[in-house]
Input
Amino acid sequence: MDLLAPIMISIIAASTPLLFAAIGELVVEKSGVLNLGVEGMMLGGAVIAFIVSVETGNSTLAVVAGAAMGAVMASLFALLTLGLLANQVATGLALTLFGIGLSALLGQGYVGTPLKALPKLSITGLSDIPILGLVLFGQDVLVYLSFLVTGGVAWFLYRTRGGLILRSVGENPQAAHAIGFPVIRIRLFAVLFGGAMAGLGGAYLSLSYTPMWAEEMSAGRGWIALALVVFATWRPGRVVVGAYLFGGLTLAQLHLQGMGSTAIPSQFLNMVPYIATIVVLVLISRDATRIRMNAPASIGKVFHPDG
Amino acid sequence: MTKLTRRSFSALTLAAGAAAAFPARAADPLKVGFIYVGPVGDFGWSYQHDQGRLAIEQEFGDRVKTSFVESVPEGADAERVITQLARSGHKLIFTTSFGYMEPTLKVAKNFPDVMFEHATGYMRSDNVSTYAARFYEGRYVAGVLAGRLSKTNKVGYIGSIPIPEVIRGINAFTHSARKINPAIEVTPIWVNEWYNPGKEADAAKALIDQGADIILQHTDSPAPVQTAEERGVLCVGQASNMERFGPKSHMTAIVDHWAPYYIARTKAILDGTWASGDVWGGFDSGMVEMSPFNANLPEAVVAEAKAAQQAIHDGKLHPFSGPIKNQAGEITIADGATAPDGDLLGMNWYVEGVNGKVPG
Output
């Protein structure tokens, strides 16, 4: 079936930005902080990565700049919520609105500028394997990075002392503080990491997925990433499943429409990725005790060492 | 404090008297407001409306002052924004999306001295005009290109939201392409959004993977053009000239050109001749244009497309002149007849050659 490989490649493209943003937010939430500014940070990363790529022609620099922009925006969030103890939900929402406006302003002169997509890897021999060759060995570097990061996060959270500390901060910051862990600093690092990952997701959008800058081009992907984290019950593996399920179903429904499946209205088909992703993730994580175990107990609550 | 109160009080009474006695000072610029459904940087629908706004500024200079609000969702939010524009002294307000129809009429009732221009709607009142463009004329011209140039006989069409406007475009295009090459099949994929670059690109990929070698779009971002370029198939741009995104693949674009209308309506307000009306302009009004045809296209094909454009412009050719069959093969528009505007405005059926069913 010669359709398979291109479909799988399209799925990877649709899923990668979600995976980046979601895995970053997972770490943030595991540390007990809820940052609803993912959409804004993605847009910030997207616009900066695009600008740097156009101006310098250096895609590595562009990717780094995109991640850095996400982190910078996240540091603003950290300053307000961790430093000045502002409400996390309100601050996160503000960050999204801020990101939409800021990216539009920065990108004003770049609307309608075309850009060459990130180069895809091409490993002689391996990339020529039928079907799987291109899918596995013919992607751009950000796709591989997304898997490296996800694996790294899973390993860090569950196999290292640092991860244990981060999780404990998310569970009970008072206790962690009492033992002597620097709660604020740990949360700061988590928030910055989350911002950088959202920025990378954005950079993937404007450099590889659709290599251009258009206002609000993330079109809600930051919100989907947020939802994925919750429905995946804060497990990195399930975030991968969720992101790829969503990307896969999006492509599947488009193909189904293209094949002229006349029985189901297209409005319903457009809904399917959302519903099915939620249903599947809820089913695989339906065990209430396990949800309670995985959910960071102090999420969204302001921490003050004296409180 | 007291002084201020007294002064403002007397100013208020004076103003009340003055408002009744004198018209506004001539030096006051006319404030013209715009409300857009997307961001001005979408490089599509809202971008083109904003180009119209800039044209007004260019034309009238100090005599007008324009402002706009972008990315306003259709519905309750729109009503609030339009009210605000009316309240802040805008005397002419362009509401540029179909879904602003009800809010526009509602606000217009409360502000009888403010004139409103609603794009693509069908409901009017004394101070609400409607205007739209016959984009289907451009679709017909695109159909000529597809009829000559498709090798796989499969054309992919990215639909936004299944309203008559979009379906009309699909039909005009399909009918035109099949007049030249009856083997052509057009497959629409609906993304149910006006603007989502990633999803538009995904839809284009799906259509190309299924064998389409020409991609049409009725969504607002240049992402499908970019995808077509990457995959080496032909495409037609939407709303603005998107050739930069597909130097080889972009055959032409159906361009929305609002400037002449916006300038004329602003002038009417300045001259005091504005009256409620309805304009549905095509090639002849300048509202719809084809962007320059790609230099790589065969000359004969471009000449044929240009001839069709000219014929429509001159009123010698109507894109919906019969015989036109529906999907079941029944003749819906008889030989020699043309579909009246009323039928076109409510079009909710596909012509023969379109795959799938009209959603809804």
Summary: Chain B touches chain A through 45 residues (CB under 8 Å).
